Amino acid sequence: MDPAPPPPPPSVWHSLTTFRGTTSRKTDIYVGIAGFAILLALWSVVTYFEWVQVDYLVSFKAVIIRLSGMFAGENVDHSFVKDIAYSIYRVGVAFLLSAVMAIPLGILMSSYRIVNGLSEPIIDFIRYLPVPALVPLTVVWLGIGETSKITLLWIGTFFQLVLLVADDARRVPREYVEIGMTVGAKPRAVLRHIILPAM
């Protein structure tokens, strides 16, 4: 007697609408694109029939025309591309400074109790301060130039990043460190050749 044929695979719609169903990556991409298409269609319908005043919601076409004009450099005194470049520069410099400072400090915090004890309470306190509240102080101390802007971005990234690095370093299995110490590795060598690659 022939075995019963396997049941057909569930349909895509069934997988999408089932509680905690699973779908393929390709399906997820298509659904995400469909979500944007539905949003744009709804936006176009609302603005076409003027259900909302133009002062509050302009059409998608008007946004695209204005955005292309900004990239094309319609306004000689104000370049959108230059603004993007400045923003990338500020964020890049601030994050680079944060990483250069946070990675060594986070590794040391996870390795030496005294470093952790001296720095973690201060870092925990500062990281909960809202960065916009520090804008007046940075303007008073550093002026309105690039330094104050980069400093604010640094404050917003460093104190979060150093704790993430420290937590990641603490997750390195202790056995790795013990093996390194057993074969005669010094603390600096353990940090460089065991903890850092394992992170």
What structural class is derived from the secondary structure elements? mainly alpha
Overall geometry = flat
Task: Tell me roughly what share of residues is in helical segments.
Answer: over 70%
Question: Total number of helical segments?
Answer: 9
**Total number of β-strand segments?**
0
Ends: how far apart?
Answer: 57 Å
Rg, please? 27 Å
Q: What share of the residues does DSSP label as strand, in percent?
A: under 5%
Query: Could you give a short account of the major beta sheet?
Result: none
Low-confidence sequence ranges: none
What's the order of the H and E elements?
A: HHHHHHHHH
User: What value does the average pLDDT take?
Assistant: 85
Defining key terms:
199 residues, mainly alpha
Describe the structure.
- The model has no long low-confidence stretch (mean pLDDT 85).
- Helix content is 72%, strand content 0%.
- It has 9 helices and no strands.
- It is mainly alpha-helical and 199 residues long.
In short:
With 199 residues, the protein is an all-alpha fold. Helix content is 72%, strand content 0%.
What's the topology here?
Elements: H1 12-17, H2 25-48, H3 60-72, H4 80-111, H5 113-127, H6 135-142, H7 146-170, H8 174-182, H9 187-198
Helix pairs in contact: 4-5, 4-7, 5-7, 6-7, 8-9
